[in-house]
Amino acid sequence: MIARDRNWLLVFAVCAALAVIYPFFADGYQLTVIRDALIFGLFAASLDFFWGRTGILCFGHAAFFGIGGYIMALVTLNDAIPVGSVLGIIGAVTGAAFVAAIIGYFLFFGGIRGSYFTIVTLAMGVICQQAAISWSSVTGGDSGLIGIPPIAFDLGGMHVDLSQDLPSYIFVAAIAAVAVLVLWSISRGRWGTVLTAIQDNEVRAAALGHNAPLRLLVTFVLSAAIAGLAGALYVCMAGLVAPDLSGLLLSTEVIVWVAVGGRGTLLGPVLGAIAIQRAQQTISSFNPSLWPLLLGCVFVIIVFVLPDGILSIYARLKSLFKGRRHAR
Amino acid sequence: MSDVLLQAENVGIRFGGLQALEGLNLMVRDKELCCIIGPNGAGKSTFLNVLTGTLRPTSGSVRFLGHDIAGLPLHRIARLGIARKFQIPSVFPSLSVEDNLKVARWGAPSPARPISELMELIALTNRAATLAGELAHGQKQWLEIGMALAIEPRLLLLDEPTAGMTPQETLATAEMLLRLKGEFSIVAVEHDIRFVRALNCETLVLHQGRRLRSGPFHDIEADEMVRDVYLGRR
């Protein structure tokens, strides 16, 4: 337990150090690529916080990403609202959390678990995307909303403006690091242990006095709030919001990032998101239609061969050698 | 009458066309130990499910310290001070022995017994870091009893605590319970006569969902009717 925590912190420190020195070697374009990948990494970590600890798969997590994005866009595009960036982020986080609370309340307290939960959340994602397309007077319909300003706010007399590549990269990297660290400290302590117990045997956990549905709900809401935050960051960096951001494709992609990076590790999904998006750009430059095919194959291989993700290769090799030594 | 902890009155339950339980009464006083026995299908587990509030009786009532507990959510019942050990050992397999006990303790309104003492009581001190899924069957049963104790119950309900245990483990479990007697009330549903004999307490015999006999175990054991039912003569 202690050794595992130490290893995690070590990997985290290495990643953080890489993130700090990266700007010295990268040009503006490369910085923005990694910045956007980090935002999706944060999104992947939010899904992992829920899926990894509860074992319940949400197949519509992009809905919360999209809700966060649309709220951020609507708030910052409205000139009547002062300090749009700050209020936009707060609105995006609470909006996503609010929707998750309502849907989650009925699902968790109604005893919906496992595949049924996955199917309902899948439908939720589709509904969100359709709403974004159909409600065109507010959401801009199919083409979405454009011209979303970069994040800018005043912090203790200092004006922070994230229209440049480097400041926006630093801002996103810092938020991602803090969020992953916070999610990790929640999920390794008492909260996470009880969630693991609920995943093992919910009835038993309840018979010991734990309010399992409430705990699952709070975890889901927190996960959705972080997804909403990622959505809000993304639309400001990209400058536009579109129905795709709450769509089925993104919901599927985020599941692949988490599965590839390693479910339940929080850091793995961030790395998975970065690596896969990098691969996507390279492969799509040869042939755009090749990517979905490869993505599907990678997902199937990961599920069958490495169900604990790429980070588990090291642990697997170690146990393999250990087993050999014992056999001798 | 203030020391009555659990009172089941005229409990009946019907599943479709099957009258599973009929007219059962049970009174458990504070710090009392009692057993419910009966042949397979007598309704022992069903009765226990009613006593823990998991099943709502179709007639009659179950009151714990004066509260009607039928239909309360499981965690609320646990927080009233009712602990339960399930028939199939249901520990948390992906957590260590220590974490299993911790999870149990965190659920309690006011845990008092330290983890180390619990582990000693269930003889698992040297397995603290072992994953519960890797324990032997008997050890899982003990761990589950330890988890039930961790919530500092007023009443401990045990559903076939010795199922699948070796004769030595069965007697060790009976000794463990006799040591705990006097700290809280215990109701054990059992199938194994040796275990009940070792406990030698107030016993309720069920047969086909009804009370057949009740009284101290040595009277029950001598009863011709009970012997007939157990031997399958009736």
How would you portray this structure in words?
The complex is a heterodimer of chains A (328) and B (234). With 328 residues, chain A is mostly helical. Chain A has one domain (2-247). Chain A has 14 helices and 4 strands. In chain A, the strands form 2 sheets. Chain A has a two-stranded antiparallel sheet. A two-stranded antiparallel sheet of chain A has the order 2-3. In chain A, helix 1 runs antiparallel to helix 7 (165-188) and helix 3 runs antiparallel to helix 4. The longest helix of chain A is centred in the N-terminal third of the chain and has 27 residues, at 28-54. Chain A is globular. Chain A starts with a helix and ends with a helix. The model of chain A has no long low-confidence stretch (mean pLDDT 90). With 234 residues, chain B is an alpha/beta fold. Chain B has 2 domains: 1-81 and 153-234, P-loop containing nucleotide triphosphate hydrolases (Rossmann fold); 82-146. Chain B has helices at residues 44-51, 74-80, 97-106, 115-121, 137-150, 167-180, 193-199, 217-222, 224-231, and strands at 4-15, 18-29, 33-37, 59-64, 67-68, 82-85, 155-159, 185-190, 202-207, 210-216. In chain B, the strands form 2 sheets. A 6-stranded mixed β-sheet of chain B has the order 6-7-8-3-9-10, with helices on both faces. A 4-stranded antiparallel β-sheet of chain B has the order 2-1-4-5, with helices on one face. In chain B, a hairpin with a 2-residue loop joins strand 4 (59-64) and strand 5. In chain B, helix 3 (97-106) packs parallel to helix 5 (137-150). Chain B is globular and about 50 Å long. The model of chain B has no long low-confidence stretch (mean pLDDT 86).
